[in-house]
């Protein structure tokens, strides 16, 4: 196995991110050597993980070199692996859960899976909290951060309970502590350091799980995604996967399988920045995207995403416990649902699956025989009316009225150029000749909220040519379904809202043709979702409508569960 490097951001001649540098300075174990590969340089250390780092490699160079080589291997790469099985943090919260997930994987002896894992339980949140506390606690106190203790305890206990050697994670835990000391010393946590910090979660869970499968006698090989060709933009905390990733990952997994077959256990959520060569992350929940990327790269039969719920549900079960599973979705519906706030899937994760036309199956690792949700390119929409109701809260709405007699084209262009310049996402839009109403994504970046100063700045810019009303604490309720039946959906929805005394402040029928969005006050939103859910899904409405496809609870809809039927 190659020697390891946990500082993929460190390239000869490049300045280090300060806290990482500080944590490195605290230790002496590093040695530096150049990789044998022409045009590449690599920092190595005696212990830890392996990341090869291509110095200053421009994406274009990578694309030419890697694509050509991978294309040769590409067709064969499809031969061995059959499915991706992704398990999220909720499926991997303890040693007991790891045992169950191993058992689940082994219960499909006819499959050759690529396994993608997230960090255990709430580890990512704990890492982020630890990082934030380190900024202000002072270096001597960094070792005492409570979240660090929780992370250590969980991982060491898991290793012990699974009968594995503590050395599987102890080096990483030491390194994590050093990093937190570095952050504490420098009193800063850059986005780059944040990504590096959270990467410890997936790096540990995959090492533990691979070791456990090997202990059970099932050959498994651990991979850090940033080491096998997950090349991304350098947008730390929210990076995009570059095209070169597909052939590179396919080539690597295929080659290793040919050399020595073993189930790949890949870190979800992580990548390597194309310019910085540092660890990047794909946004919260990004392991789903890792899974669909691998599915497309290898041209697999199916992508399975194992969660703690019986599939995609008719609404967020935390908002309304009566939510029921949705048996079928299209990629467009699933993407819209995720984008408009359903935390169950990463918003970008449907893209590779759609491009590769690979079905995604959302399953429950706690209830493996439940049929789950199958997401495909198309489905019979003739009977579909409403699929799911999604709520996105804490949204800011802007009413912008032109004060100059700009034509509509010029007015809209001016408004949107401001959002583009400030890097703020717009969700729902309704326009007239001289006015526009729109909502702003509450999390401009996945990891943090739009802050007041940014909003003030937006308003200031817009007021140069318009009158602006800023309306905060709004919610978007998205009705995901068949927009061809929009009159029926809207008639029912508005009846329900009127009965509940709710005034809709904006309405938009998405260009995607699967979404009608309504904007209401935050304070009324949950009650609206519950009332809409009752009206559409619980009182026989859909079965009253001629030809409607009616979701039900339980397994009677299990026409999509053929391969799990037992
Ligand atoms: N429409 C929905 N359908 C299913 N789950 C939803 C929905 N909206 C929100 N959720 C939440 O998403 C969670 C599953 O997603 P996530 O936490 O990312 O799982 P994992 O960590 O296992 O990948 C559920 O436990 C549920 O609370
Ligand atoms: N661990 C990362 C990535 C991820 O996808 O997690 P999960 O599969 O548990 O949502 C996060 O919490 O964001």
From TrEMBL:
Pathway participation:
Amino-acid biosynthesis; L-lysine biosynthesis via DAP pathway; (S)-tetrahydrodipicolinate from L-aspartate: step 1/4; Amino-acid biosynthesis; L-methionine biosynthesis via de novo pathway; L-homoserine from L-aspartate: step 1/3; Amino-acid biosynthesis; L-threonine biosynthesis; L-threonine from L-aspartate: step 1/5
Q: InterPro entries, alphabetically?
A: AceGlu_kinase-like_sf, ACT-like_dom_sf, ACT_Aspartokinase, ACT_dom, AK-LysC-like, AK1_ACT_1, AK1_ACT_2, Asp/Glu/Uridylate_kinase
- The protein's name in its UniProt record: aspartate kinase
Please list the GO biological process terms of this entry: homoserine biosynthetic process; lysine biosynthetic process via diaminopimelate; threonine biosynthetic process
Q: Which SUPFAM superfamilies match?
A: ACT-like (SSF55021), Carbamate kinase-like (SSF53633)
Q: What does this protein do?
A: Involved in the first step of essential amino acids lysine, threonine, methionine and isoleucine synthesis via the aspartate-family pathway.
Species: Sorghum bicolor (Sorghum)
Q: Where is the ACT domain?
A: 400-476, 478-557
Q: Does the keyword Membrane apply?
A: no
What Enzyme Commission number(s) does the record list for this chain?
A: 2.7.2.4
């Amino acid at each position: 196995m190659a020697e390891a490097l946990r500082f993929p951001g460190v390239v000869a001649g490049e300045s280090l991110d300060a806290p990482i540098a500080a944590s490195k300075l605290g230790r002496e174990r590093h040695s530096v050597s150049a990789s044998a590969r022409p045009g590449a340089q690599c920092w190595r250390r005696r212990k830890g993980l392996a990341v090869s780092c291509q110095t200053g490699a421009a994406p274009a160079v990578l694309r030419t070199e890697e694509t050509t080589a991978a294309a040769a291997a590409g067709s064969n790469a499809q031969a061995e692996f059959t499915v991706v099985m992704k398990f999220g943090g909720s499926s991997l919260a303890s040693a007991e859960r790891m045992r169950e997930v191993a058992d689940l994987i082994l219960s499909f002896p006819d499959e050759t899976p690529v396994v993608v894992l997230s960090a255990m339980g709430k580890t990512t949140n704990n890492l982020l909290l630890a990082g934030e506390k380190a900024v202000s606690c002072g270096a001597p106190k960094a070792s005492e951060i409570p979240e660090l203790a929780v992370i250590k305890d969980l991982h060491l206990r898991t290793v012990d309970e699974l009968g594995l050697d503590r050395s599987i994670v102890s080096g990483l835990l030491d390194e994590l502590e050093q990093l937190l000391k570095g952050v504490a010393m420098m009193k800063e946590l850059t986005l780059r350091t944040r990504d590096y910090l959270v990467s410890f979660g997936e790096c540990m869970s995959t090492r533990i799980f691979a070791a456990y499968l090997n202990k059970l006698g099932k050959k498994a090989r651990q991979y850090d995604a940033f080491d096998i060709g997950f090349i991304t933009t350098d947008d730390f905390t929210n990076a995009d996967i570059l095209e070169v990733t597909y052939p590179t990952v396919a080539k690597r997994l295929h080659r290793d399988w040919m050399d020595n077959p073993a189930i790949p256990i890949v870190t979800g959520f992580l990548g390597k920045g194309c310019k910085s060569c540092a660890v990047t992350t794909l946004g919260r929940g990004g392991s789903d995207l890792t899974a669909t990327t691998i599915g497309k790269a290898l041209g697999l039969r199916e992508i399975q995403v194992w969660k703690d719920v019986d599939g995609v549900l008719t609404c967020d079960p935390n908002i309304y416990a009566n939510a029921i599973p949705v048996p079928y979705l299209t990629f467009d519906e699933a993407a819209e649902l995720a984008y408009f706030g359903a935390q169950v899937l990463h918003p970008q994760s449907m893209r590779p699956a759609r491009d590769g036309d690979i079905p995604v199956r959302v399953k429950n690792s706690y209830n493996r025989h439940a049929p789950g949700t199958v997401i495909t390119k198309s489905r019979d929409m003739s009977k579909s009316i409403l699929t799911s109701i999604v709520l996105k809260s804490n949204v800011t709405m802007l009413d912008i009225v032109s004060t100059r007699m700009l034509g509509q084209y010029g007015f809209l262009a001016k408004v949107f150029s401001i959002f583009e310049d400030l890097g703020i996402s717009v969700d729902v839009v309704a326009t007239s000749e001289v006015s526009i109403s729109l909502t702003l994504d509450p999390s401009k970046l996945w990891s943090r909220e739009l802050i007041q100063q940014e909003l003030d700045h937006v308003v200031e810019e817009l007021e140069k040519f318009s009158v602006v009303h800023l309306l905060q604490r709004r919610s978007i309720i998205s009705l995901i379904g068949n927009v061809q039946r929009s009159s029926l959906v809207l008639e029912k929805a508005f009846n329900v809202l009127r009965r509940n005394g709710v005034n809709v402040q904006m309405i938009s029928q998405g260009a995607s043709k699967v979404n009608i969005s309504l904007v209401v006050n935050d304070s009324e939103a949950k009650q609206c979702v519950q009332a809409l859910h009752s009206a559409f899904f619980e009182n026989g409405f859909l079965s009253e409508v001629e030809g409607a496809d009616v979701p039900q609870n339980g397994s009677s809809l299990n026409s999509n569960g053929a391969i799990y039927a037992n």
